[in-house]
Design goal:
- It is built from five helices and 26 strands.
- The protein folds into two domains: 161 residues, Pectate Lyase C-like (3 Solenoid); 185 residues, no CATH class.
- The chain is mainly beta and 401 residues long.
- The radius of gyration is 21 Å and the shape is globular.
- It is 10% helix and 32% strand.
- The chain has a 19-stranded mixed beta sheet that branches.
- It catalyses: Eliminative cleavage of (1->4)-alpha-D-galacturonan to give oligosaccharides with 4-deoxy-alpha-D-galact-4-enuronosyl groups at their non-reducing ends.
Length: 401
């Protein structure tokens, strides 16, 4: 089970105004074997992002101010990190950001033990590696065309854990532009339109950046997608492993796969009620300036737990095929097994050339999907103080039990 044990703190002021833990020989630095607050977190890593080290072995910095910038702030702790840094918080905080915080390599932002909320802007991970972000709430309040967490430009070894993400006018999470080896675990996505995108088509030639973007490898497990519209997630190119996630009450569609992505989709739970009230705002702002609302689609969403394979990019593919003469198809390669459909939800995804989807190269704690598993995800996903029960791992061959 997740351990919230922390070492005794004594603080020494630094030049930046942040406080560095100075007392307790086990926690002077974030050495895993010596400091329980570090080892208890790192022991939970799974999936393609399982090697993310975060601030392991570096100094421990404690945020003491809820201002956007200046001494003792989260922004100062991140910007002034030189080498591995494990960032903690000295109290509950709501931080109203004036711009995105860019996270360099070798950083852990660890909100365990306090209620930490970031408003209006989130975090950018660009050309960075070994980043861990856990136990934060990030709420865009639909004010800015930004993302809660943007992972881009060749970033790798990133783990997002126990986050509560909502209301961003762009997306909640991107993994794009050659980024890879990312895990999202126990994240709650809610009250948002275009939730999550793995890769992003930026050219009329859909396959212009295939060599770069096909390297993406992303694991999504025990995440909760609630009262969203679409892209839970949308996957183009790359490799995705989605297991034991809960999708509940999407307003347009659930998941989407296309453009020769390779995805193993197993043990997920889809729940939808078509007689529910719409919880969307009057409209979702978009970068195109189009005011969109999707409430009218709710009566039809039960049959759209996912889009048909490749459907999200089929029209563009067919329109541009005579120009670019693609040698690759618009469908994804899919292995689909053991998913559970509750309420009015109907299955859509099915195997497509499953032999092209390899087994994950790691052990992972898989649970057969049940109502009890769904209830556990509802309770423990997000920026929660309770610990989810431990999920047994797997055998020596690196597959599910």
């Amino acid at each position: 089970m997740r351990c919230l044990a922390v070492c005794a703190f004594a603080f020494a002021a630094t030049a930046s105004g942040a406080a560095v833990q100075a007392a307790g020989p086990d926690c002077k630095t974030s050495a895993s074997a010596a400091c329980p607050m570090v080892s208890s977190l790192l022991g939970l890593r799974e999936g393609y992002g399982r090697k993310a080290a975060g601030g392991l072995g570096g100094k421990i910095v404690v945020v003491s101010s809820d201002a956007d910038a200046g001494p003792g702030t989260l922004r100062a702790a991140v910007e002034q990190a030189h080498g591995p840094t494990w960032i903690r918080f000295g109290s509950d905080m709501t931080i109203r950001l004036q711009s995105q915080i860019r996270v360099p390599s070798g950083i852990t932002i660890d909100g365990r033990g306090h209620r930490i909320t970031l408003l209006d802007y989130g975090l950018g991970i660009y050309r960075s590696h070994d980043v861990i972000i856990t136990h934060l709430t990030i709420d865009g309040q639909l004010k800015t065309f930004s993302q809660a967490v943007n992972i881009a430009n060749g970033s790798h070894d990133v783990w997002l854990d126990h986050l509560d993400l909502s209301r961003f006018a762009d997306r909640l999470v991107n993994v794009k532009n050659g980024s890879t080896d990312v895990t999202l675990s126990w994240v709650k996505f809610h009250d948002d339109d275009k939730v999550m995108l793995i890769n992003n088509i930026t050219s009329k030639n859909l396959y212009a950046h295939y060599a770069r973007d096909a390297a993406a490898r992303v694991t999504i497990h025990h995440c909760y997608f609630l009262d969203t519209v679409q892209r839970n997630p949308r996957v183009q190119f790359g490799t995705a492993h989605l297991f034991n996630n809960l999708l509940e009450n999407w307003d347009f569609y659930g998941m989407s796969f296309s453009l020769e992505a390779r995805a193993l989709v197993e043990g997920n739970i889809f729940v939808n009620r078509i007689d529910r009230a719409c919880k969307e705002p009057p409209f979702f702002p978009t970068v195109e300036g189009v005011q969109r609302r999707y409430c009218k689609y709710i009566p039809h969403t039960a049959a759209r737990s996912a889009l048909e394979n490749g459907e999200s990019d089929r029209k563009n593919y067919e329109r541009t095929l005579p120009i670019y003469h693609y040698t690759r198809g618009y469908k994804a390669f899919l292995r689909v097994r053991d998913n559970l459909y509750l309420g009015a939800a109907k299955p859509v995804l099915r195997d497509y050339q499953p032999g092209k989807v390899s087994d994950p190269p790691y052990c992972y704690g898989y649970q057969a999907p049940t109502q009890a598993v769904a209830d556990g995800i509802r309770r423990y996903a997000g920026n929660t103080s309770a610990d989810p029960p431990a999920v047994p791992g797997c055998g020596p061959e690196g597959r599910r039990p």
